[in-house]
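Field log, afternoon session.

UNIT: design team B
ACTIVITY: writing a sequence onto a fixed backbone
BACKBONE:
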C-alpha cells in the first residue's frame, strides 16, 4: 500500500504525481487474472466506501471487528477504517495466528469478536477444523471470492452459526465493497444488490444494457471522477464515462454477471477465465462448479494448463474420491473438450497471505499431478486401424487411442458429421451417420458396429 501522492513504482523509476492531496492511497491489484496495476484511490472514494459498508452491516461503537487481511491487500483498508469510523474496536490478529485456523479460533474465543470479515476460503477452512466457534459473533462478511451455497452449508453445519452472513462483492479500484446481500437458507445461487451510493450496470460489448437472464460485463459507478491507475493508458481503458454526472466515470470490472429477476445480479467469474480448448470456448468457473457438484468435493479451482484444463479439488472431510470418479462425474455433466485431464485431489486448497486461494500454489499442485488421461490403447484390428487414421485427420494434433471418447478429444457435432462422411466415402460403410458417432464415440465401439454390419451383409 502507498499512502498519499508519492508513488514509487518497481525498479528505479520514481515519479511525483500532481494530485494536490486528492489521493488517499494507492495499491497494487493482485494480478491473479493478469498484470498487476497500481490503483489510485481518492479521498472521497475511500470515505464513501467506508461509510456504505458500515451502514450496510450496521457497525456500532460496541462492535469488536476482526482484522484478518494481510497489510498490502485492499481488504485491510476496509477492515481498519470501517470499524474506526464508527468508534468500534479493531482486533488485529498476529501473522502466526491468522494463518493457523485452529490457533485463530482459540484466540477468537478469548477476544470475543462481534464481526468477522474474511474470505470464502477461510470459511471453508474453519468448517474443516474441529474447534469451538465464538458465540459473540453477530455478523460474518464474506468477500474477495465467490461464495457458494456448499461453503455456506458446511460452515453453518460445522460451527452452528445462525447469525447474519453477508455475501459481498467489490474491487480494489473502488476502494472495496460495492454490492452485497444477506445470505438466506433457501437460495441455490446468491444474488447481489448495490450498496448505498453505488450503481452497477451489466452491459454488452457495445455498452448496451442486457436483459434479465443474459450475461454481460459488470460496470461499477461509485460517483467519483478522480480514481485512476498510475498508467494513463490503463485508466482510459478501464474507467469509462458514466451517465450519472458530467465528470463521473464507471469502472469496467472485466467480471461476467447476469441480471437476476429480483433486480440484483449474479457474479459469474472473470472474462479472463474464458479460454479456448481446441477451438471451443471454455469457462473455467463453470468447470469448477461442475466439479463442486460432486458430493465428495468441497472446493475446486480450474486453471488453464497450456491448452488443457487442470483442476484442483478439496475433498469433504471423511469423503473418498478418485480421479476417474471425478472425471466420470464431470463427463456426466456434459464436459468433453474441457474435461480436466490434470487433477490434483487434496484435503484443502492452499491459501495466500490475503486469505484467498493461492492460484500459483494450486498450479504447482496440478503440474505435479501429471497428465491423468487413461493410457492410450493401440488399434488391434484392420477396421480399428482404418478408423484411427480418419479420426486423426478430423482431430489433428491429438494422441488417439481406440478407447478414447471422440467428444472428450475435442469432437463436436460438425466434426462428427465430417468423420461420418469420410467413413462412408473411404471405408464404404453407408450405415455410419452422425448419430453413429454419438452412439459409438470410441474407435473400438465404432469398429465393432461396422464389423457387425459387414457380417449382416
Amino acid at each position: 500500500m502507498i499512502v498519499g501522492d508519492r508513488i514509487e513504482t518497481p525498479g528505479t523509476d520514481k515519479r511525483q504525481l500532481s494530485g494536490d492531496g486528492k489521493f488517499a492511497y494507492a495499491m497494487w491489484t493482485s494480478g491473479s487474472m493478469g498484470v498487476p496495476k497500481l490503483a489510485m484511490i481518492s479521498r472521497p472514494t475511500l470515505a464513501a466506501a467506508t461509510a456504505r459498508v458500515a451502514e450496510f452491516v450496521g457497525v456500532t461503537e460496541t462492535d469488536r471487528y476482526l482484522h484478518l487481511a494481510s497489510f498490502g491487500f485492499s481488504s485491510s483498508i476496509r477492515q481498519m477504517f470501517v470499524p474506526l469510523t464508527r468508534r468500534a474496536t479493531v482486533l488485529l490478529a498476529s501473522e502466526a495466528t491468522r494463518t493457523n485456523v485452529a490457533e485463530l479460533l482459540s484466540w477468537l474465543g478469548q477476544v470475543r469478536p462481534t464481526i468477522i470479515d474474511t474470505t470464502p476460503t477461510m470459511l471453508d477452512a474453519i468448517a474443516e477444523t474441529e474447534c469451538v466457534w465464538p458465540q459473540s459473533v453477530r455478523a460474518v462478511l464474506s468477500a474477495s471470492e465467490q461464495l457458494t451455497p456448499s461453503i455456506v452449508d458446511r460452515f453453518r453445519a460445522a460451527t452452528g452459526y445462525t447469525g447474519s452472513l453477508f455475501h459481498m462483492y467489490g474491487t480494489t479500484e473502488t476502494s472495496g465493497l460495492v454490492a452485497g446481500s444477506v445470505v438466506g437458507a433457501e437460495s441455490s445461487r446468491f444474488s447481489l444488490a448495490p450498496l448505498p451510493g453505488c450503481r452497477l450496470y451489466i452491459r454488452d460489448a457495445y455498452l448496451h444494457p442486457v436483459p434479465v437472464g443474459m450475461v454481460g460485463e459488470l460496470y461499477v459507478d461509485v460517483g467519483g471522477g478522480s480514481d485512476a491507475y498510475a498508467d494513463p493508458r490503463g485508466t482510459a481503458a478501464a474507467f469509462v464515462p458514466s451517465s450519472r454526472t458530467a465528470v463521473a466515470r464507471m469502472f469496467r470490472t472485466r467480471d461476467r454477471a447476469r441480471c437476476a429477476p429480483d433486480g440484483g445480479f449474479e457474479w459469474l467469474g472473470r472474462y479472463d477465465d474464458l479460454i479456448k480448448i481446441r477451438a471451443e470456448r471454455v469457462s473455467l468457473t463453470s468447470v469448477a462448479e461442475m466439479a463442486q457438484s460432486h458430493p465428495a468435493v468441497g472446493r475446486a479451482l480450474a486453471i488453464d494448463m497450456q491448452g488443457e484444463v487442470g483442476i484442483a479439488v478439496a475433498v469433504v472431510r471423511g469423503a473418498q474420491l478418485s480421479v476417474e470418479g471425478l472425471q466420470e462425474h464431470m463427463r456426466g455433466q456434459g464436459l468433453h473438450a474441457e474435461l480436466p485431464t490434470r487433477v490434483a485431489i487434496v484435503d484443502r486448497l492452499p491459501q495466500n497471505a490475503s486469505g484467498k486461494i493461492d492460484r500459483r500454489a494450486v498450479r504447482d499442485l496440478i503440474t505435479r499431478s501429471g497428465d491423468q488421461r487413461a493410457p492410450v490403447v493401440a488399434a488391434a484390428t484392420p477396421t480399428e486401424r482404418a478408423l484411427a487414421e480418419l479420426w486423426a485427420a478430423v482431430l489433428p494434433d491429438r494422441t488417439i487411442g481406440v478407447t478414447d471418447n471422440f467428444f472428450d478429444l475435442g469432437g463436436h457435432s460438425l466434426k462428427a458429421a465430417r468423420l461420418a462422411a469420410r467413413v462412408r466415402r473411404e471405408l464404404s460403410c453407408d450405415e455410419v451417420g452422425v448419430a453413429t458417432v454419438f452412439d459409438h464415440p470410441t474407435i473400438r465401439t465404432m469398429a465393432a458396429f461396422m464389423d457387425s454390419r459387414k457380417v449382416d451383409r
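LOG NOTE: Residues 124 and 178 are 23 Å apart (CA to CA).
NEXT ACTIVITY: expression trials, pending approval
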